[in-house]
Amino acid sequence: MSILRKVAGDARGVGVAAVYGRGHRSDVSVTYRCGLARPPPPPLTAPIPVRIWDLPTRVFHVALAVLVTAAIVTAKVGGDWMTWHLRCGEAVLALLAFRWAWGVVGGRWSRFASFLPSPGAIGRALSGRASAQDAIGHGALGALSVWAFLLLLSLQVATGLVADDDIATTGPLNGHVAGRVARRASDWHAGWGADLVIALVALHLLAVAWYTLRGGASLLRAMWTGDKPLPAGTPASRDGAGQRLLALALWALAAAGVWALLRWAA
């Protein structure tokens, strides 16, 4: 009986097609409206919003961008603004201490283990053959950029703590290191270190613009909302109240640690 019903249904479908013409664009829609066939189900892999970037990571990203920009500007202006340059550096130190801890206990895609790109992933990214799995969180090239930022900024803050510009500004830990160490740190901090930070910032902005224009997907929107359109079943980052309270506690510890370090240095 099922075979007969299928044949009869096919015949009715053919009849409708014959009335409207095989090339007519309404063939399929008329068949659906007449109840002669069921529309195909939606694809199982239709993208849905998936939480990738938890709120603490997003707040860190915005705060770091603001503070690094302020540190660069105040250093270029100089003079009395160097006091604010030091304050920006101390705040960046607290942010970095938080991020190094959050990379271990944070949301799934904020953990360092999630963006350790393999040579194969880097090769696919360079050749334009990156898979969907490669781009869930940080892509291979984006991951390298994040590592470069974290390591370079950590080195820049460390050298700034002991630097001496030979004019009026010294880092809070300058008196606790040998003069030779302070001079080398100062040369790096004001020279190659500052130039590399500016270059990385520029490269990061260009990469965001290029990916947005090329792929039509706004990386800035994903970083702002935390969600990316991905296939159903993609594991999401935890971003509940408990996770945010943990981040707040880690941030408080990082800030307290920087404050204690500065008090000790004074």
Describe this protein's structure.
The protein has 266 residues and is mainly alpha-helical. The protein has 2 domains: 2-33; 47-265, Up-down Bundle (Fumarate Reductase Cytochrome B subunit). It is 65% helix and 4% strand. The protein has 10 helices and 2 strands. The chain has helices at residues 2-20, 27-33, 55-77, 82-105, 119-126, 140-162, 179-190, 192-215, 219-225, 241-265, and strands at residues 47-51, 227-231. It has a two-stranded antiparallel sheet. Helix 4 packs across helix 6 and helix 4 (82-105) packs across helix 10 (241-265). The longest helix is centred in the C-terminal third of the chain and has 25 residues, at 241-265. It is globular. The chain starts with a helix and ends with a helix. The model is unreliable at 1-33 (pLDDT under 50).
Topology:
Layout: H1 2-20, H2 27-33, E1 47-51, H3 55-77, H4 82-105, H5 119-126, H6 140-162, H7 179-190, H8 192-215, H9 219-225, E2 227-231, H10 241-265
Antiparallel strand pairs: 1-2
Helix pairs in contact: 1-2, 3-4, 4-6, 4-10, 6-7, 6-8, 7-8
Mean pLDDT: 84
CATH class label of the largest domain: Mainly Alpha
Major β-sheet strand ordering: 1-2
Major sheet summary line: 2 strands, antiparallel
Q: In terms of structural class, how would the helical and strand content be classed? A: mainly alpha
Question: Which sequence of SSEs, written as H and E, runs from N to C?
Answer: HHEHHHHHHHEH
Low-confidence stretches: 1-33
Number of strands: 2
Rg, Cα atoms, Å? 28 Å
DSSP helix fraction: 55-70%
The CATH topology of the largest domain = Fumarate Reductase Cytochrome B subunit
- Strand % is under 5%
Q: Going by CATH, what is the homologous superfamily of the largest domain?
A: Transmembrane di-heme cytochromes, Chain C
Shape, please?
Answer: globular
How many distinct domains? 2
| CATH architecture heading of the largest domain | Up-down Bundle
Query: Number of DSSP helices?
Result: 10
- The termini sit apart by 92 Å
